[in-house]
Amino acid sequence: MNILLLPPIDSEGSESPVTESPGLGYLAAFARRQGHTVECFEPRLAKLDYKGIAEYIGRSDAELVGFSILDNVEGVYQVSSLLRRKRSSVHITTGGHLATFAHRLILKECSAIDSVVRFEGEKPLAQLARSLTSDQDLSSVSGLTYRSGADITETAPTASFENLDNLPFPIRYLPDSHYQRQPFNLIASKGCYFRCTFCGVHRFYRDSPSLVKRYHSPDYIVGQVESLIDSYGSNRFWFMDDDLLGTSKRERLWIDKFIKLLEDRGIEMIFSLMCRSDTINRYPDLLQRLRSVGLKRLFVGIENINDDVLTRINKGVRIKGHKYIPASRNLGIELVGGMILFDRTTTVTELRNNLAFISQFKSDIQFNFDLLKVFFATPLYEDLNSKGQLLGTWREPIYKFENQTIATVFHVYKGFKNYFWKFLDLPLRNIIWKHIGLSNPPLPESCIREALGMYNALVVKIIRLALEESEALGSKGNAHVIFEDIRKAEQNRIEETLFVIQLMQMPSLWSANESTPKRQLAALCPQLP
Ligand code: B12
Ligand code: SF4
After folding, report:
1. Residue 420's pLDDT is what?
2. pLDDT digit string (tens) for 147-174?
3. Is the CB of 97 within 6 Å of ligand 1?
4. What single DSSP character describes residue 422?
5. DSSP readout, 318-354?
6. Domains and CATH numbers, the chain
7. Residue 478 carries which DSSP code?
8. Which ligand lies nearest to the CA atom of residue 193 in the structure?
9. Ligand 2 lining (C-beta closer than 6 Å)
10. What pLDDT is recorded for position 324?
11. What is the model's pLDDT at position 511?
């Protein structure tokens, strides 16, 4: 059967960078091994709107179309409805975390969609294609929710691959040139033993008949790495696992074996991964060892520096678990710290504690400052929903802050985030990627430190000012007015940060030169202060 798979569709007009979906690559590789013809299509490369996507699919010879859904359900509804008008006989299915949790809602809300594959999709997708080819009843497909007449029926899921090595290597569906600029995404394990309230990963694996966490063997992953380096000549990778490093001895043994294999085979790779803060605390030697085999960038879910908040989100860690958050400068690894600065019950003291913590690191960590977002079917969603504290819809659930000062500060911060996104945030990420060699050409250390230091200081300053002003104004505080006050007061600092970051995007200025951007700036534009 001819199958066409699409990664999560972005909302129209979104400019977020293209990231290859390893999940889609596995689905395609497995279905091909079962004898189907499978293509994956990334509409963002062609910059297509919903109509354009539907037209593209309509022109293809796909008989089964699969949409991966992460967040943008509305986009999938619109494309599916447009497609249905062009091709009445094509079978439209969906899958992924959100689709799994909201399977019945999706089929109820969008009549153009025929089915939802729940949980891991490799076996069910291949079974669905086989059933459709032979015109069989869909009841033999495992883990499928589908229409039968006016009803919605669901079949029980069966366990997915207990031994992940039985899966073929995922296909790489983006143009070759993409991998010269961006790393290859890898998945070495699936699942996570923790149960953070805001995350759907644990439910996805716990509700399925498969084991909660499974690993590919180090041999499989290293084999994949070697084969990609041989085929594409690029050695940059990004492990996208839920929690690759974990905290148990068993997980540590996996990492040790993986490191040894890379050393024994003399493989030179550059990679990044995501981990919990208590992993670093438990195994302080681990980062150095990973660094010696190519770890260049580490995303650490610090989340918060208040024990009450860590308990609220059920992170399974106390602040003493953050004890060993090292400085990038000392380690030679670029650190990204995920911080949840705002949640429904954030207090002013909690926010101040977090800002003080962030300030300590100056230019040593790239912080992602975030709002605790609610995703459908997560424990957080269930809790707030049961207490009647959710507004919006299941697709876009939101909550009201308890503390009015925090609400105002958040809206001021959000205003700056939107204001900065294109000019500061995104370019800063790009230059960090360049710096660590995850994309070319690399930038010198001093540049990155300068930009990061300026950016972190700017954001902390803005939030502190917003806090001061909204506390002083009390109930009269208006986020829009405070935003404008701060923007005017901090215009010089904003422009300087913006200029330095933009300057750094001109690699020709940086080549082997280690001087700081400020000096470069002064040399280039002596008229500037
Ligand atoms: C890569 C990634 C992204 C990429 C997307 C890349 C892409 N083109 O797909 C980017 C960076 C863009 C991204 C964005 C977001 N992401 Co994201 N992302 C991931 C990440 C790290 C890896 C995904 C992956 O490949 N996993 C491995 C594969 C094997 O698993 P899988 O993708 O789930 O696919 C399997 C099944 O779900 C199923 N399946 C999936 N799609 C389909 C489609 C069909 C047709 C079928 C049959 C089956 C099927 O079969 C697959 C194979 O077994 C996961 C975390 C993780 N490790 O999974 C988070 C994760 C999926 N993301 C998440 C979130 C919340 C988001 C955002 C909403 C974040 C935000 N606040 O903006 C956005 C949404 C963007 C959008 N456009 O909708 C959450 C989802 C939580 C939930 N809903 O419960 C996760 C789990 C992270 C987390 N721990 O919270 N993300
Ligand atoms: S540790 Fe990460 S993957 Fe695991 S439940 Fe928490 S947020 Fe989700």
Report:
1. 77
2. 988 999 999 999 999 999 999 999 999 9
3. yes
4. I
5. -GGGGTT---HHHHTSEEEEEEEEE-TT--HHHHHHH
6. 2-154 (3.40.50.280), 175-390 (3.20.20.70), 403-529 (no CATH)
7. -
8. 2
9. 192, 194-196, 199, 201-202, 242-243, 276, 301
10. 75
11. 46
